[in-house]
């Protein structure tokens, strides 16, 4: 069968008894199944692609011999009960046992644990878990997304066909849950949590790819406004301006220089990048201007330290978001549950 959850319901109780022999009793640490794969790349036999990749890639000491299994190239399997080597199918052609309570001969993929709600997505070309009714395929992003994100996510061309920007695992075939960020980029849910908890975050948690904020930081921006008001510029920097690029609204503008942070004149975000520093007096020589810009960079670094110290104090303000904002943020956590 190409995509099934039972081998032969129409064959009667006797056939079902044969098919169900050894149900859940065989398999590896990754899957419960009653069949092994004959890997065409090295001619060896493994329970699943993960077992193969661990042995032939992760634990292979010889770099030249490292490789991963392209599961779509598998044409032969071995029955776990009678050890017969045979073409890919959903049950053994000799002893009749079903290779899995769920069997997909297109991938091929087998699993006796139907609680995962595996299903084959023709557009993705692989089996996924989580229930077909809970996902839709986004043609632009090139993957299955949670129905919570239908019409509510930013499409990025082939967003899932890339490595996680934190751990660098290929996301499209990853078995780990994946989060779709407000900007449309993708990341492992576990890596996202680590990123949000990271002490290296200076102003706010951002997408590792485009640097857009991961959430509504209005409370933090208001706190930084008060910090900027209570930390006036040293006299030598009064009147200085900075040309900035906003990572959140993607605009460029010129603002008054400040040690705490450079606030976007459009959206009010402090998640900005300084492009140029314009001193109040520009008649000095180029060398002097470069020296001033260096001094400004040092002062900006000091301002970053102020933000770091104030970040913990601002955290409690973020907890005051309305329940509606929380629900909107949670919607962005809807994501592919991973492939098989």
Short description:
The protein has 340 residues and is of the alpha+beta class.
Could you describe the 3D structure shown?
The protein has 340 residues and is of the alpha+beta class. Helices cover 24% and strands 17% of the residues. The protein is built from 6 helices and 15 strands. It has helices at residues 12-19, 49-58, 189-197, 218-230, 286-318, 323-331; strands at residues 35-38, 45-46, 76-79, 85-87, 102-104, 109-111, 119-121, 126-128, 135-138, 143-146, 178-180, 186-188, 241-246, 252-256, 272-278. The strands form 6 sheets. Strands 2-1-3-4 form a 4-stranded antiparallel β-sheet. It has a 3-stranded antiparallel β-sheet with strand order 14-13-15, with no helix packed on it. Helix 4 crosses helix 5. Residues 283-287, 298-303 and 305-335 have low confidence and may be disordered.
Question: How many H/I helical runs?
Answer: 6
Task: Determine the N-to-C terminus distance.
Answer: 17 Å
What's the total count of β strands? 15
Mean pLDDT across residues: 84
State which percent range the strand residues make up. Answer: 15-25%
Structural class: alpha+beta
Q: Ranges with pLDDT <50 over ≥5 residues?
A: 283-287, 298-303, 305-335
Helix-residue proportion: 10-25%
- Sheet with most strands: 4 strands, antiparallel
User: What form results from the Cα inertia axes?
Assistant: elongated
Alpha carbon gyration radius: 28 Å
Strand order of the largest sheet: 2-1-3-4
* Secondary-structure element string: HEEHEEEEEEEEEEHHEEEHH
């Amino acid at each position: 069968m190409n995509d099934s959850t039972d081998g032969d319901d129409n064959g009667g109780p006797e056939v079902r008894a044969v098919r169900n022999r050894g149900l859940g009793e065989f398999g590896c640490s990754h899957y419960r199944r009653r069949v092994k794969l004959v890997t065409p790349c090295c001619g060896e036999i493994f329970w699943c692609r993960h077992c193969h990749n661990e042995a032939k890639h992760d634990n292979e000491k010889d770099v030249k011999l490292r490789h991963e299994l392209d599961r779509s190239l598998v044409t032969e399997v071995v029955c776990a009960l009678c050890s017969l080597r045979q073409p890919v199918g959903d049950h053994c052609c000799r002893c009749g046992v079903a290779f899995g309570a769920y069997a997909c001969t297109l991938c091929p993929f087998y699993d006796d644990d139907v609680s995962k709600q595996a299903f084959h997505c023709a557009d993705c070309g692989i089996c996924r878990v989580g229930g077909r009714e809970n996902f839709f395929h986004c043609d632009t992003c090139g993957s299955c997304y949670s129905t919570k994100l239908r019409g509510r996510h930013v499409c990025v061309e082939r967003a899932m066909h890339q490595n996680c920007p934190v751990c660098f695992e290929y996301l499209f075939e990853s078995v780990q849950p994946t989060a779709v960020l407000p900007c449309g980029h993708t990341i492992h849910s576990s890596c996202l949590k680590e990123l949000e908890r990271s002490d290296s975050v200076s102003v706010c948690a951002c997408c590792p790819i485009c640097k857009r904020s991961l959430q509504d930081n209005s409370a933090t921006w208001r706190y930084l406004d008060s910090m900027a008001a209570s930390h006036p510029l040293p006299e030598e920097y009064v009147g200085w301006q900075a040309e900035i690029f906003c990572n959140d609204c993607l605009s460029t503008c010129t603002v008054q220089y400040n040690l705490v942070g450079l606030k976007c004149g459009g959206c009010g975000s402090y998640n900005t990048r300084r492009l140029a520093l314009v001193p109040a007096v520009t008649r000095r020589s180029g060398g002097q201007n470069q020296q001033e810009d260096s001094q400004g960079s040092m002062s900006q670094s000091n301002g970053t330290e102020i933000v770091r110290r104030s970040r913990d104090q601002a955290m409690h303000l973020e907890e005051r978001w309305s329940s509606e904002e929380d629900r909107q943020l949670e919607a962005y956590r809807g994501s592919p549950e991973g492939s098989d």
